[in-house]
## 1
Amino acid sequence: MRQAARQAFSKHEATNLIDEGLRSELTKQGIFTTTLEDLYNWGRKNSLWPLGFGLACCAIEMIATSMARWDLARFGAEVFRPSPRQADLMIVAGTVTKKMAPQVVRLYNQMPEPKYVIAMGACAISGGPFKQGYNVLKGIDRYIPVDVHIPGCPPRPEALLHAFMTLQEKIDRQHLTGPDRPRHARADVAGEFPVPAFGEHDLVPTMNPEVWQPPQHAGRD
Amino acid sequence: MLEGTKSTNVESLEQIKNRIEAAIPGARLEIMPNGSASGQHSILVDNEHGLRIACFLRDDPQLRLDYASNVTGIDWPETVIKEKKKTRQLIEGVEREIEETVETRRPGYLEVVYHLYSMEFKHGPLILRLRTGDRAENVHLPSLTPVWRAAEFQEREIFDLFGIRFDSHPDLRRILMWDEFLDHPMRKDYVDPDDFEYEPTAHGAVLDRASQHRQTS
């Protein structure tokens, strides 16, 4: 059995995975197997500490999610940190005005890796009902990479919980090694993103093309 | 007309206007009638005496308008007003009624509107208007913040969004947009940045801007 396990391990070494059938067989025999990657991801996904900041009405729903009725503590994420240095999840909850956008990007830059972003609500993902206004950013994903988008105005706490679970699944799928490893495991990729400047008519630049580009066949003619 | 519950001295707007003119010699006032159902007529005040008139309205023992509830701006761009006038003319010896359209060009200007109430007498609103000379250079108006402190942030907002300069305002900075911003977004001729690169559900004016953007870029 142990030999089989060793064989299985070497077989899946490249992807850091144990054959699921073998693993359940071993568990039945009273042997617990895991990989460092699984253990690491299991620990990370169950202790996401969000940055405690809200921008508009979505923040009220975010607060409700963290309270007893929806109980975000079940996911190990009830510790809303008042400092970006202690947080690893940014919930962009609400309308990002153009005046606020540089501060949001700066807060994201100040968070230590690994870090994740949930864009909560219609405004945070696209500008929402204020999309055609002169003072609202058309989605925070123009400046920072967003892991989970939640539509809704505002999204219900269930939707935020669903976003949490989606993010947990995403973290669980991340590899520590290999070519598809995430940004925080790579030395050659920077974790900071350029902060836009206040221009004379708009933010400069209006987007970060490395993070976001308009889809090629977007919209009707 | 001042409407109030506890007020014993309900004056008409005409009476208030006459009393201001008597108290402040040289003040030029004009009653702007409001044709809508609310019938909230306002007083247009000249810029030179604006501050003194405001002080009078606040301190007058019969009015005591001690509370500026709301300050807002209006942009009136230059327009051509078409009026139909009926005139009687002799045509071929017969007098006939002829309809003529008379076009008058009205230059553009900006306005500030103050809604004043009295906390003491529980009456109001009295609506005060101030008008700038034009929309480009002569956009200076007297600030009424020294009279009503509540006007400070609202005058800053009007400066930010309409571009009206309030003289003797204690802290005239932009309040909503950033300091480097140059435009005044609530003006009718404001053109917002051309960022229509992704409009998945565009319709109406947005659709026009989006297709325009696609043609130019």
Note: Chain B touches chain A at residues 176-183, 185, 190, 192-193, 195, 197-200, 202, 206-207, 210-211, 214 (CB under 8 Å).
## 2
Amino acid sequence: MSKQISFEYESKQYTLEYTVRTAGQANDDGFVLEQLSDKPALMIPKLVYWSFIRHQKWITRKQTEEIYSWIKDKQGFISALADMYAEAVNALIDDEEDAGNANWTLS
Amino acid sequence: MRGVGGKDAAPLMSLMAVFEKACPQYMAMGMSYDQFWDGDVSAHRMYRKAYRQILLDQNRNAWLQGMYIYEALLAVGRYTKAFSKAKPAPYREEPYDLFEEERKQKEEQKQRERYFRMRDKLASFAKAYNEKRQESIIEEVDESA
């Protein structure tokens, strides 16, 4: 199962998820993961907005910015979204090397 | 100035273009269009793995078929030579036993287990025998004393 973030905001349930389509659309919109720390003011709103689109197609950028301003632990939230985006982009990367390489985890 | 790049440089191909190029390949693996674009992203990896398994199986089947043909050619090889009085060897009566290796391994494992059981039995028997013998020697010594 791919990662999702769920929460309730103003008695509405929201689910955030990245798919291949929304990851591609975010990239077309100018989002570049590598620039997230260099240009946060530009990149974070795009990362947040496109994560909503899979389950809330009707949402506007302004609404996503409002919800983002309400979110606690913004750093953790952005880090989780960045992970979800990377997972969607990496979904198409070949994993032939899985067989012989050692596994590692970030602790 | 040549060679300007770094992470601010424009990518050679957009991500969407890469995905669009990959989509037909995934559809050939059995993924639906909607599944590819809007589905769970962990499924892509599973489809790739399954497809790889299919290719491995197909390759194995082709190799197996080649082996049967090779054997058949060997069986009739001498017969097809001009002026040869040799008769064609009969074709194998049964297909290859695909699980022969597995069966052999199981049999070996059973033999190993039998050996260890026997060894343990012998060891306990020897121990009991030695204890009994020790007791009888002590009794003999006591009696003689």
Note: Residues 100-144 of chain B form the longest helix (45 residues).
